[in-house]
Amino acid sequence: MKTMTIQSKDKEPHEIKQDFPVNFDNLEAKAKEILPLGNFEYIRGGAGQEQTMRNNRIAFESYAFIPQLLNDTSSIDTSISLFGISFPKPFIFAPVGMNMLEHPDGELAVIRAASKLNIPYALSTVSSYSLEEVAEVAPDHTKFFQLYWSKEEEISFSMISRAEAAGYRAIVLTIDTTVSGWRTGDLKINFSPLSQGFAKGNYVNDPIFRKNLLNGSYENYIDGILKNIDHAHLTWAHIEKIKKHTKLPVLLKGILHPNDAVKALESGIDGLIVSNHGGRQLDGVIGSLDALPNITKVVNGRVPVLFDSGVYSGVDAFKALALGADAVCIGRPYVYGLAIAGEQGVQNVMMNLYNELVTTMTLAGTSSMEELKKVELVKRNNQM
Ligand SMILES: Cc1cc2nc3c(=O)[nH]c(=O)nc-3n(C[C@H](O)[C@H](O)[C@H](O)COP(=O)(O)O)c2cc1C
Ligand SMILES: O=C(O)C(=O)c1ccccc1
């Protein structure tokens, strides 16, 4: 593979493989060639008729921005600050479960890429490698732990304590996975990612989970994970308990309604992630980007508002940031990069997104996140 070196604005040289797919469709097509069909469809697919997935894209396509020119954009500052820490790029790795479905190095490859690029990394509860193994690879890098609430709450509290002990900097509680979405693609071929055994990382050595396993509450790990993962009983009352249990900032992932954003603030939540889970959970909901402006309005800068679902280019990231997101979380693109070329693939994807964002900022006359936030957008009614 030919390589070239790109000098990014945060002064770290990054190598990009020239024959690595650049745009999202090509990335997805390449991953499809490489991955077993079930794994690929699980990653690509969404819930139901995939209306929500389409709504995500329609939302991005509906916004257009109006550049203002003859501003000095010879130096672009993309840095952001989150919970008192500064990062050179406005990106975050979204939590994505079971990375061994894509590559044997799984989350270890992703955290290596994240730490080289200095992009915060959110590890999933259902990771293939444990939170401790991931932390060991990059002890000083900023990591968040995404929590799927367990039916047996002691397991969740145990995982939070382990994340604290291993140096994770925040807990991201995902609230949109009350039950797993109606994933028609997986149902069609009877594909069950959990049954492949790649979701065990955080459960295998969890003291509470093991105790229950030995007590015979579950037949095996997979049975135990399946029995624990749905959280339909989770309510606002739990947030108080979680906040009491940990000193770490707690973010809620999956906020779409401004009323929920208000409740989150009233409950003392430290940050929000506007997300519809990439259209994988509830079909027929609003595009995530369409939910963003009303939420940033009610939050009004009191806590960080992060964003995900459908960010597939630097221009998409630009639009989400212009609509008030403090950082954007990247999901499927990096997962495809991981499938294609492991750690290097993850780096390539993130650097392509980043370099396109920098190019977009330069052309749009915006040299910092503050200026980007002032960009004017127009929304048109789009049919795709
Ligand atoms: C294969 C896959 C697995 C995921 N696993 C999790 C998970 O374990 N926990 C979680 O909160 N979100 C999970 N997500 C959702 C992502 O965090 C994120 O919300 C989503 O990927 C954003 O949509 P996008 O990929 O279209 O940008 C997963 C997404 C994918 C594609
Ligand atoms: O597939 C997903 O999107 C996801 O979040 C999940 C939920 C439960 C188990 C594994 C992954």
Automatic annotation (TrEMBL):
Belongs to the FMN-dependent alpha-hydroxy acid dehydrogenase family. This is L-lactate oxidase. It is an enzyme of class 1 (oxidoreductase). Its cofactor is FMN. The keyword Oxidoreductase applies. It holds the Pfam family FMN_dh. Residues 16-382 form the FMN hydroxy acid dehydrogenase domain. Keywords: Flavoprotein, FMN, Oxidoreductase. Its EC number is 1.1.3.15. Glyoxylate binds at Y42, Y148, R183, H277, R280. It comes from the Bacteria. The active site is at H277. GO terms for molecular function: (S)-2-hydroxy-acid oxidase activity; FMN binding. It comes from Ureibacillus yapensis.
